[in-house]
Amino acid sequence: MNNPIDDGFVTLIEYVGKRGINVEDGLVVLLDHIQYACKRIATLVASPFNSSLGKQEGIGAAAGSDRDAPKPLDIVSNEIILSSLQKSGKVAVMASEENDAPIWISDDGPYVVVTDPLDGSRNIDASIPTGTIFGIYKRLEELDDLPTEEKAMLNSLQSGSRLVAAGYVLYSSATILCTTFGSGSQTFTLDHSTGDFILTNPSIEIPRRGQIYSVNDARYFDWPEGLRRYIDTIRQGKGKYPKKYSARYICSLVADLHRTLMYGGVAMNPRDHLRLVYEANPLSFIVEQAGGRGSDGKNRILSLQPVKLHQRLPLFLGSLEDMEELESYDDVQQRVNPGYEV
């Protein structure tokens, strides 16, 4: 059998292990376990039996909780990722959207993983794309002498500027893994015939301008004045880019972001809705490494210091020039909830 590198096909593990992007061995091992978990999740998402997976009575977020009420596949996906991280031998702590507190895994694991195991799971019954999001930090060795719960939390609340790797997996017509190790962003597509993620774009470059914005327009009249003016302006082609923008909204964060990376523009949720630790930080790292920007409407996401695990905030991701124009309107954060459920 011919070597896949000789044939021009490079797998994810070959790319990070042999292609000179300076990824240390432990991180390669960890990534291998994460990709395995995501392949299992991809199979579950596509299964005709997934509506009966993991059904439990009485599952839901506690009253007043910052977490979404979990759905069955969320729980199963969370267990798959946790199991893979445990088996890797490389992870000290995992912080997940599905757990109230971080889970301490190993005293000598060199890495910390934050994750949203199955973003957009409410869309599964309609076969709308979903995704997995993850970020990887180094364990803060200076905290090793603290009590387990305290060091688990502090390791999980690192600023996004300390990320060493991040990625998302899009479960759609193709299963695509997009990742960064701090030297550009790459995409890999799952080859179902071999079970390998194959390199399909070694260097994503988000266009400096797009012509698409992605947001829930049904909430237009709840938005702050600045955001309404920005959307009105670009829809009419009266902004700094003299073309009329189009709206494209899937209501699946990973899917909306992936399209934005490919075509440019802005994907946004102006409400205090998306989570800083395991959604905004990893995705902003990927976008910045592709030449774009992640913002809360005023500040660079990766410069923010998390203060709690499930902290929510507005999130704007996209092309650099589009983001600069958006931020110039200032009043784009919807801080007042008009009464609907977050």
Automatic annotation (TrEMBL):
Any one GO cellular component localisation term in the record: cytosol
Keywords: Carbohydrate metabolism, Hydrolase
Catalyzed reaction equations: beta-D-fructose 1,6-bisphosphate + H2O = beta-D-fructose 6-phosphate + phosphate
Fructose-1-6-bisphosphatase class 1 C-terminal domain ranges (all copies): 206-329
Organism: Arachis hypogaea (Peanut)
Protein family membership: Belongs to the FBPase class 1 family.
Gene3D superfamilies: 3.40.190.80, Fructose-1,6-Bisphosphatase, subunit A, domain 1 (3.30.540.10)
Top-level enzyme category: hydrolase
Signal peptide bounds: none
Keyword RNA-binding carried by entry: no
Protein name: fructose-bisphosphatase
InterPro entries: FBPase_C_dom (IPR044015), FBPase_class-1 (IPR000146), FBPase_N (IPR033391), FBPtase (IPR028343)
The keyword Iron belongs to this UniProt entry's keyword annotation: no
GO molecular function: fructose 1,6-bisphosphate 1-phosphatase activity
GO terms for biological process, alphabetical: fructose 1,6-bisphosphate metabolic process; fructose 6-phosphate metabolic process; fructose metabolic process; gluconeogenesis; sucrose biosynthetic process
Entry's EC annotation: 3.1.3.11
